[in-house]
Fold:
Amino acid sequence: MLAAERRNIILEKIQEEKKVVVSELSKEYEVSEETIRRDLEKLEEEGHIVKSYGGAVLNEASVTELPHNVRRGVNIQAKQRIAELVNAEIEENDHIFLDASTTSVFIAKSIKQKEHLTVITNSIENLLELSLVTGWDIISTGGQLKAGTMSLYGWKTAEALSAYHVDKVFMSCKGISMERGITDGNDETAGIKQAMIASAGKVYLAADQSKFDKKAFSQICGFNRIDTVITDSEPDAAWKEFFAANKIGLIYPES
Structure:
């Protein structure tokens, strides 16, 4: 296994488990503890983790995006459940925005049986996923390709979004906090989602339970801009009461 591949796998593991132990990683990947320490040093330099005694923890405050292939492999079942629920919210002939989150890739997969949609996205992977669908209008925002993210960003992307008005936007985030609202990893990503919100009739936040009670670096918006939250399992009573008090719709799988 190449060092870069091992580091990506470690990143995926720490994203899921929030922490790792050097001795356990050494045994799992059959390399020396010194090799694992070098891997963790590299990941810390990139801003993904914080080294701790004997291991490392996820850097929750990081403004650095995890590589796309790592983010896509995290919480797969949760994203699939969310995508199924989103599918039911999309009607034939809808005009929609899909953001460049990994959740939206699962949404793109789930809606391909619809007869006709207009989809506008800044996600390269969404464009590839939908490239063989016939009878749809698929529109790329254009913009600058951001390394490692399979997505387009920048002022041209925001300008393109402002030229449209869609029925619905489906977006994800890094954190959902009652105090701080909806947050993401950096200003650039948050800004694109703000442009989508400004040009959409209805705003859906598609976020799994791992995002709840978390705060990321940049605020996307307050809860007053969210119409409906779609998540993978039933939130606790405090969150249900909060959404109800703020007149926000809540959709999750029925048990």
Observations:
- The mean pLDDT is 90.
- The longest helix spans residues 3-17.
